[in-house]
Amino acid sequence: MSKLNQLLVKSFHITQVELSKALEYQQKYGGRVEQILVNMGALPDDQVQPLLSEYLSIPQLNISDWIDEPLVTMSDDEALKFEKLACYPLASAENTIHIACKDPLLPALNEWLFEGNSEKKVSYSLANEYELKQLFSRHNGYESDLVTTNLTGDEEERLREMASEAPTVNLLNSLISKALRQNASDMHLEPYDGFYRVRYRIDGVLHEVEKLPRTMQMPLITRLKILSGMDIAEKRRPQDGKIELRIASQEVDIRVSALPVNEGESIVMRFLKKDSVRYDLSVIGLSEDVEQQIRQDIKTTAGVVLLTGPTGSGKTTTLYTFLNALNNPDVKIITLEDPVEYQLDGVNQVQVQSDIGFDFAAGLRSIVRQDPDIIMLGEIRDKETAQIALQSALTGHLVFSTVHTNDAASAYTRLLDLGVEEFLLNAALVSIVAQRLARKICSHCSVPAENAAELFERFELQQFCEKFDVEQINLRYGNGCEHCAHTGYKGRMAVTEYLGCDAKIKSLPKDANFIPLAKAHNLSLKRRTLVEDGLYKAIQGLTTIEEVMRVAG
């Protein structure tokens, strides 16, 4: 097997079957094996450059190193020739020429180098299309002048042309493919420090992955606006849109949000990957005792089960998991959401549309008339919605919903603040679960924590173990590897605080002393707070104490 083929299998995860098909096609029709694999959908387009870099031992160009550097002077005719060869002469000395090129194996490029520069040593850097575009933009003497001005008809047409050019299209596809490959939930594009910064949110944490030249800002924004159905001429107001794409054999819905900022526009893209989420109670990371309690609660025929936590704490995913566990032909399930993010088979999902007066309260009144067995409300935001939800539970419906509070007991005070009567809460609530999402230690690079003794003493884990009958401590952390993008973490799990609305909780006055009394009752039943549940998982080697303190401390 050739070195290139070995690299494809070992480092770029091409299967032997895919490689055999590509080689068979190459033998019949010719062409480059890596490009055949790209056309097959087996190799992402943005991986060709890293492949060539490793195969040919040629460094990849860091465009930021050349932003302020003087470039080689050349005529327009020479520039046109270089554009056709997909290369740019970065520097030229008496004995050496330094060239940025897309494909150093291109025959026409090597013919030109041999004919015109046979006595010079050639130094290559691999550059992609948008990096070459940036270099040629500097030669042509213009930067993007469409960032802050109001667009005329000609400028708008120019923007559309720039957005449809190959460098812009390939750059956006490359960024999205890379985000999906790294399991990013969001991609952020924002002007920062003279560049257009690209960041991915992976397992709830933002990571900077790219600094694009400022000249790519408007073409990229325009491309996204065209795809998501926004107005490309409107740059003063926030806009929202949606894109449906098939990239790297994945069906993905992308919610796009554009926000005007001081130096242009900030774009946030949320990836909703179809068929990629498993709604299974056993895989969301609940502790065994909490999972057992919740399984009992969701089997009740009537009542309200609430999830609490901030935005991004996985409340909706957990609610979907509850619905999935109950979903069968014998029951009718209706959800009211804003927005509907994932489609659940066999479930009637309704989208709130506040602009026409169809809000949660109006939607809930309509849902109750549809004779459902189970109702899921995306969020309880006001008194009317809360009262209808609780009254629905009293009339024989099982209701799931969320409120924004920091812990489980605070959900009572939040609903009382909305104006809900205390007797209604006591009658309808079954349980409340506060939730956060903590990153899991990567299973491929997990090792015992070197500072275990220090952590044991600092967080008083001896007392913790005695309190919750824990016999074995296994503190670990992730060293960082290619599987977790060298972060030490891969995937997330739920850290929870469970509060069952039993007779004792119902009998407590819902006054200023309720929250400490409810917590004391939970402690008497050996139920853990959010931090304690996180520590419980850290002791089992599932996450780190640092991560627990970040999300729940």
TrEMBL record:
<dbReference type="InterPro" id="IPR027417">
    <property type="entry name" value="P-loop_NTPase"/>
</dbReference>
<protein>
    <recommendedName>
        <fullName>Bacterial type II secretion system protein E domain-containing protein</fullName>
    </recommendedName>
</protein>
<comment type="similarity">
    <text>Belongs to the GSP E family.</text>
</comment>
<dbReference type="InterPro" id="IPR037257">
    <property type="entry name" value="T2SS_E_N_sf"/>
</dbReference>
<keyword id="KW-0547">Nucleotide-binding</keyword>
<feature type="domain" description="Bacterial type II secretion system protein E">
    <location>
        <begin position="368"/>
        <end position="382"/>
    </location>
</feature>
<keyword id="KW-0067">ATP-binding</keyword>
<dbReference type="InterPro" id="IPR003593">
    <property type="entry name" value="AAA+_ATPase"/>
</dbReference>
<dbReference type="Pfam" id="PF00437">
    <property type="entry name" value="T2SSE"/>
</dbReference>
<dbReference type="InterPro" id="IPR001482">
    <property type="entry name" value="T2SS/T4SS_dom"/>
</dbReference>
